[in-house]
Design goal:
alpha+beta, 6 helices, 8 strands, single chain, two-stranded antiparallel sheet, about 180 residues
């Protein structure tokens, strides 16, 4: 059997990790999923633990590679996608300092209103192309600054979910 050039995709969704392997022509070679929990410590709060994601990624990738009988060197591209608007506070040690505040987390109602008043909703939309909601990363970051000052001060960077995983895989910090 000739060597295959495979694309591995890792999709970190709101409830599970979906791993798919594709051939160069776009055909699905294999797929696997593994779930992880969300935590609801207070009304309107929805958190996930990055360690739970990592465990699901390891499980689903291993299952997908095993199902496709992938040999070393056959995966030539890895793509990471994931849920939007989640934020992971990352410290100077490159580790998550706390849970991810997910897309469904709406604790930052007051902070979203403060930002809207200070900047204006139409200007926010012109700049970002998105409507400002309590689930927006900027509102969550402002909430953390007001309510979790020590965590905020210890944070080197806030990363979206997919970029935190990409950081774990590569050691690089960045986003698209």
């Amino acid at each position: 059997m000739p060597k295959r050039d495979l694309v591995l995709t890792i999709d970190l969704g709101t409830t599970n990790c979906k791993c798919m392997l594709f051939s160069n022509d776009g055909s699905i070679v294999s797929k696997a999923t593994a779930s992880y929990p969300s935590y609801y410590p207070y009304p309107g709060w929805v958190e996930q633990k990055p360690d739970d994601w990592w465990a699901a990624i390891v499980t689903s990738v291993r299952q997908g590679l095993k199902r496709a009988e992938v040999k070393r060197g056959e995966v030539t591209v890895i793509s990471v996608t994931g849920q939007m608007h989640g934020i992971v506070p990352v410290g100077s040690n490159d580790k998550a300092l706390g849970p991810c505040l997910t897309l469904r987390d709406n604790r930052a109602v007051d902070e979203a209103e403060e930002i809207a008043t200070a900047v204006g909703l139409s200007k926010i939309y012109r700049i970002t192309g998105a409507r400002l909601t309590p689930s927006a990363p900027i509102a969550k970051i402002r909430w953390l600054k007001k309510h979790e000052e020590r965590l905020y001060d210890s944070t080197q960077v806030f990363l979206p979910c997919k970029d935190y995983i990409r950081h774990l895989l590569t050691g690089d910090i960045g986003t698209d």
